Amino acid sequence: MWGMEKTLDHYIKLPENRYERVSFRKLMGHVIPSTTYTTHGLYMYPAKFIPHVVRFALEKYLRGKREPWVFDPFAGSGTVAIEATLAGVNYLIWDLNPITELLVRASTWRDEVSLRELEVDFDYQGEFLPKWRNLNYWHPPEFLEILSRVWAYYHEVVPDEIKPLLAIPLLKVTRYFSYSDEKIAKLYKSKYARKKVAELLKTDYRKGMEEMYLKEAGRVVEKVRDYISRKPKEVKGIVHAGVDSIEMELERDVNLLLTSPPYLQAQEYIRSFKLELFWLGYTEEEIRRLSKLEIPYRKIPEDEVLSELYWEYRERVKALNHSKLLQIYDCYFRSLARFLNNVHENVTERMAIFVGPVKVRGIRVPIDEILKEHLESLGWVHEKTYIDEIVARRLFRSKTNPATGLPDERTPTEHLLIMRR
């Protein structure tokens, strides 16, 4: 019916009038020129929510409403917050990753800023070293000597209100001058990264750090000015970062829940951002606690998934005889069911959930349809599902999935599930 691959047999049977193939990039191209326009893409983040989808939903479902609220419980890099300010919509966002607050504050900066305001002192007579046992595994001592001074300046001298803007270029420098492969949003000591460090150590790396910082700080200034030029509206914004979205209670009514939840087998966001979080001042105990709340590793909730499809595909996953995969499958859907059970009564109009039908060892799991059936059991009505083909791969490339140790498989489409009261 849409020319979709044969493995998506479930979708072939669905009624066409409520399932529409679209290109969000084309639909919203007149407003959004690219996925990294304005302050999107200030810092790398895996599986980013593309702004075209967010603006589409905001324009279609909240335009003209008086003081509307949008809610994103898995906010990541803060795409919903940026687009909400540009569309004049109040936003409430949550995320397990503490770095979300920093990214949102930087990406929605409304005051004029200059490169001079983002200057840092690489000769500062202080020292800050993360409380991280693996610190020397990720940085050679030559780099640590310089990084410790500039990060001490950040923590001890830089005013709190402007720290988010300075943190962006400083984190980029810190990640580049490490054994981490900065080209992927995952903490990974690759052959490329080891070779990179060896070459950098032969150069004037102190000068290289300063030059890179100035270049990246200039990019921040340029993107913030572009954001300001688009005249973001005065809206209310609430950010809760470093919180467990699965267990949180929604403290206010919202018109629209708009989110892209973690992928079934790609949810290691805390582990991917360990380097950044340690330099920002988080401790091993704090990061360990957050890591245990990621879906592949958290305790499986007891909430029942109210979906026949869930049980149908569970049997297929169970037949693979891989206990880790079955555990992740159960934890993923029971966690999302628990989350929906907790918040759905405070969503007054619609839910818009953007997720792809992922493949698990050759089994294409229709996540959006399972969530649809669960929400229907809670009294919600299926209004529409938009099928969008993935143009660019947004997850980090990896031969194996870190949670399962199995080959990493890609998703050809992503679906915007629309449910209404």
Task: Please describe what this structure looks like.
The protein is α/β, with parallel strands linked by helices and 421 residues long. It folds into two domains: 9-108 and 235-420, Rossmann fold, CATH 3.40.50.150; 115-228, no CATH class. Helix content is 40%, strand content 13%. It has 16 helices and ten strands. The protein has helices at 9-12, 24-27, 51-62, 79-87, 99-107, 135-138, 141-156, 163-176, 191-200, 205-229, 269-272, 274-279, 284-291, 308-318, 323-343, 367-377; strands at residues 19-22, 69-72, 90-95, 237-241, 254-259, 347-355, 359-360, 363-364, 381-389, 413-420. It has an eight-stranded mixed β-sheet with strand order 1-9-10-6-5-2-3-4, with helices on both faces. A two-stranded antiparallel ribbon has the order 7-8. A hairpin with a 2-residue loop joins strand 7 (359-360) and strand 8. The two termini are 28 Å apart.
Quick overview:
The protein contains 16 helices and 10 strands. The chain has 421 residues and is of the alpha/beta class. The strands form 2 sheets. The chain has an 8-stranded mixed beta sheet, with helices on both faces.
How many extended strands?
10
Count the DSSP helices: 16
Mean pLDDT: 91
CATH class label of the largest domain: Alpha Beta
Write out the CATH superfamily name of the largest domain.
Vaccinia Virus protein VP39
For the terminal residues, how far apart are their CA atoms? 28 Å
At CATH level 3, the topology of the largest domain is: Rossmann fold
> Secondary-structure element order, as H and E?
HEHHEHEHHHHHHEEHHHHHEEEHEE
Shape-level CATH architecture of the largest domain: 3-Layer(aba) Sandwich
**Class by SSE composition:** alpha/beta
Percent range of helical residues: 25-40%
Strand order of the largest sheet: 1-9-10-6-5-2-3-4
Number of domains: 2
Indicate the overall shape: globular
Largest sheet descriptor: 8 strands, mixed
**Strand fraction band?**
5-15%
- Rg result: 22 Å
Q: Enumerate the spans where pLDDT stays under 50 for 5 or more consecutive residues.
A: 1-7, 393-398
